[in-house]
């Protein structure tokens, strides 16, 4: 007999909390703490006994009874999903990647959040079980693919959490029964009402239905079994006896043209459904025509990438993606199950609970790194530049009106069973993905514009203009706005409620699996010449690139030369502090792609950047709006520039203008910076002399920072004359990449002057 002292921590939990009732099909009388999943009893359960999602409530008319049904549906869906775990090991064994808690946490996490958020809103006065509400409150958002969680704590038993769930269920039902909704209020429920906290907790439950499904799909087959009440996988599938794609098993996936128009992002606050705070705000973007793939990328289509050695070719992967791939020794998608030796390329597919013959017409489930590598491979094969869709492009390919209404949000009109009848795989229409060419198409001929699988986006998760965190859950969105989470769009077969809505903007780290796949778009043909594009790429890398993006690794001997805009901004602020100059408005006369302007905006000041190149100003404007901007790096793929944080009370704007002739309409500034690492301005005299002679652009007593190659203080004194007083001079290194293995380091002569 094995001593418990030799067991791993999770094994000690499993032994301590062993429970025979977990080993087979659950006894409904014991397991279900709310409404049992029986036809005619539980909302969303069909005569077949399978449970599916109810429609997302319309908060302008939704009654108390409808909210209670919606809550019961979410609560029972959660318990049916967890009824698929077999034995204590399934609850306490951590995932093999160790990047998430064991399932016992997720079994109780949503329960604790009901209590905690109802307390925040004032609908509940006291904890129900303070210990469990602490232990089960915080999930995991690991920083990297190798950020291992040890999961070595002593977890509560399944029975203990189940009893806690029963008590919380009764409490929530009581709160729903005494909380006013639209018929009581005589108006729609809004985010200012206490009822919003109830809806928040229900939608949070539905988020974890989806994220828990991924963790269950990753588990050993021996630890799971599909409950009879859970929807079966789609029977619509094209399989082969060989485990390899064959003619007729892979749907054609050509591209279609999506007409360009205005994309208006952001959910109106008046729209009568629940939304997470990240959905609100606005952004307006004009898009040209673009091409999008007719279907999500299928398993059969992705098989070509696998068989062609796509996982063995570093040049197809970003630096971070290649590091992840090597660390995990990944050779094919996580849910593909090889049926022979490596190199045979024959596979079956793991669904949520089952292993089945590979459906070559279902969409492939991959992470963001895999999606980007596939796009690079397809670009190489077809001689076209494929990428993932931006958020604005995805809005257009969904074929929605510019200002959608309730009738345009299908999950507000149809439940899961009705969605299945229409061919839309949302709301658990099926218990798996389905064929990529089965759903009804948009007017342009696109399948699965909503549903089947989420689509990874080029864009990182970002706040829309006017974003405000909601006080009931202040840290839902804000911690993930740092550029480390990718947007996923469109919803998946298991997306219920708000997750399936047209307004859903959700996000995951690029190495993490979700029920997400690939939609390719074709990058619009560039109208700029190659030299201009290269110049912009170099500027973006110089101003925003990390050491890893420049050198391929963070510890390179020249890594200290990266980030010169931040260093110049610090010099400027230090000089202002020493001279006692208050900076409220600063102009950046050689802004290029805006790097120094954003560094200056790290303080609460107004910064205006000027450049005479439209492509550069457009890139800086896009960053200012919160978008990522891609750029090409020789030998490093296509990283993205991401806007640094802007201090509250400050702001950045950009103007198309010549450095030596700033428009008078810009007004007067307290500071001016001129930093041109590429020396494209060709000498200081032409654009610094107007500063010396002007009374209006830079105020008396204002500061001027000049950082140029071959521009010593002595030379500048001849240009500036008696109008400026030299405060300091130094040098600064600026680095950029010339090609795959050559770098250019430019010594900038840095001087700071005060206008007399």
From TrEMBL:
Keywords: Iron, Oxidoreductase
Gene3D superfamilies: paralog of FGE (formylglycine-generating enzyme) (3.90.1580.10), Vaccinia Virus protein VP39 (3.40.50.150)
InterPro entries, sorted: CTDL_fold (IPR016187), DinB-like (IPR024775), OvoA_Nterm (IPR027577), SAM-dependent_MTases_sf (IPR029063), Sulfatase_Mod_Factor_Kinase (IPR051043), SUMF_dom (IPR005532), SUMF_sf (IPR042095)
Pathway: Amino-acid biosynthesis; ergothioneine biosynthesis
Ranges where the Sulfatase-modifying factor enzyme-like domain occurs: 252-521
A Pfam family it matches: DinB_2
Tagged with keyword Heme: no
DinB-like domain sequence ranges: 71-211
Compositionally biased residues, Basic and acidic residues: 9-20
GO MF annotation list: formylglycine-generating oxidase activity
This protein's name: 5-histidylcysteine sulfoxide synthase
Biological source species: Amycolatopsis keratiniphila
């Amino acid at each position: 007999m094995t001593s418990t002292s030799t067991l791993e921590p999770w094994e000690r939990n499993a032994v301590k909390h062993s429970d025979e009732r977990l080993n087979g099909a659950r006894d409904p009388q014991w397991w279900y703490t709310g409404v049992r999943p029986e036809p005619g009893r539980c909302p969303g359960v069909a005569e077949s006994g399978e449970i599916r999602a109810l429609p997302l409530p319309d908060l302008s008319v939704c009654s108390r009874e409808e909210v209670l049904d919606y809550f019961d549906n979410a609560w029972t869906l959660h318990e049916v999903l967890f009824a698929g775990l077999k034995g204590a090991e399934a609850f306490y064994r951590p995932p093999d990647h160790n990047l998430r808690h064991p399932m016992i946490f997720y079994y109780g996490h949503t329960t604790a959040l009901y209590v905690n958020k109802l307390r925040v809103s004032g609908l509940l006065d006291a904890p129900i079980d303070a210990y469990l509400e602490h232990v089960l409150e915080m999930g995991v958002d690991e920083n990297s693919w190798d950020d291992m969680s040890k999961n070595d704590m002593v977890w509560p038993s399944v029975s203990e959490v189940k009893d806690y769930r029963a008590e919380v269920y009764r409490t929530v039902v009581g709160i729903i029964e005494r909380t006013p909704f639209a018929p009581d209020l005589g108006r729609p429920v809004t985010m200012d009402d206490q009822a919003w906290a109830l809806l928040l907790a229900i939608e949070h439950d539905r988020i974890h239905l989806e994220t828990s499904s991924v963790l269950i799909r990753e588990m050993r087959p021996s630890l799971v079994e599909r409950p009879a009440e859970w929807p079966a996988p789609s029977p619509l599938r094209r399989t082969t006896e060989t485990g390899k794609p064959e003619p007729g098993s892979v749907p054609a996936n050509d591209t279609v043209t999506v007409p360009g128009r205005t994309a208006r992002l952001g959910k109106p606050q008046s729209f009568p459904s629940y939304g997470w705070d990240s959905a609100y705000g606005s952004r307006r973007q004009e898009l040209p025509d673009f091409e999008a793939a007719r279907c999500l990328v299928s398993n059969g289509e992705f098989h070509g990438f696998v068989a062609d050695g796509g996982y063995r070719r570093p040049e197809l992967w970003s630096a971070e993606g290649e590091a992840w791939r090597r660390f995990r020794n990944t050779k094919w998608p996580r849910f593909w199950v090889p049926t022979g030796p490596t190199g045979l390329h024959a596979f079956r597919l793991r669904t949520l609970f089952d292993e089945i013959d590979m459906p070559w017409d279902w969409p492939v489930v991959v992470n963001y790194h895999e999606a980007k590598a596939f796009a690079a491979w397809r670009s190489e094969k077809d001689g076209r530049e494929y990428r993932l869709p931006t958020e604005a492009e995805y809005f257009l390919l969904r074929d929605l009106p510019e200002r959608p209404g309730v009738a345009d949000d299908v999950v507000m009109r149809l439940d899961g069973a009705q969605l299945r009848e229409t061919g839309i795989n949302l709301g658990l229409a099926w218990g798996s993905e389905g064929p990529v060419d089965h759903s009804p198409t948009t007017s342009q001929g696109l399948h699965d514009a909503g549903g089947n699988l989420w689509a990874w986006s080029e864009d990182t998760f970002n706040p829309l203009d006017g974003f405000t965190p909601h006080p009931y859950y202040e840290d839902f969105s804000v911690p993930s706005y740092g550029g480390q989470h990718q947007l996923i769009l469109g919803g998946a077969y298991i997306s219920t409620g708000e997750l399936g809505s047209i307004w859903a903007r959700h996000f995951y780290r690029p190495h993490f699996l979700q029920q997400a796949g690939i939609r390719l778009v074709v990058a619009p043909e560039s109208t700029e010449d190659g030299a201009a594009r290269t110049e912009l790429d170099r500027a973006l890398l110089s101003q925003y690139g990390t050491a890893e993006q420049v050198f391929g690794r963070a510890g390179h001997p020249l890594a200290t030369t990266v980030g010169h805009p931040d260093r110049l901004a610090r010099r400027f602020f230090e000089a202002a502090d020493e001279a006692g100059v208050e900076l409220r408005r600063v102009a950046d006369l050689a802004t290029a792609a805006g790097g120094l302007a954003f560094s200056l905006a790290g303080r609460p000041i107004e910064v205006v950047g000027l450049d005479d190149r439209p492509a550069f100003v457009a890139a800086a404007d896009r960053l200012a709006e919160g978008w990522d901007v891609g750029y090409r790096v020789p030998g490093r793929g296509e990283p993205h520039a991401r806007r640094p944080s802007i201090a509250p009370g400050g702001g950045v704007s950009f103007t198309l203008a010549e450095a030596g002739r700033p428009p008078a309409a810009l007004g007067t500034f307290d500071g001016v910076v001129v930093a041109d690492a590429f020396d494209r301005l060709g000498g200081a005299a032409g654009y610094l002399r107007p500063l010396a002679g002007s009374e209006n652009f830079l105020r008396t007593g204002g500061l001027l920072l000049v950082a140029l190659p071959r521009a010593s203080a002595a030379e500048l004194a001849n240009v500036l004359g008696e109008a400026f007083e030299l405060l300091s001079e130094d040098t600064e290194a600026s680095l950029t990449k010339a090609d795959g293995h050559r770098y250019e380091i430019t010594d900038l002569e840095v001087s700071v002057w005060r206008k007399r």
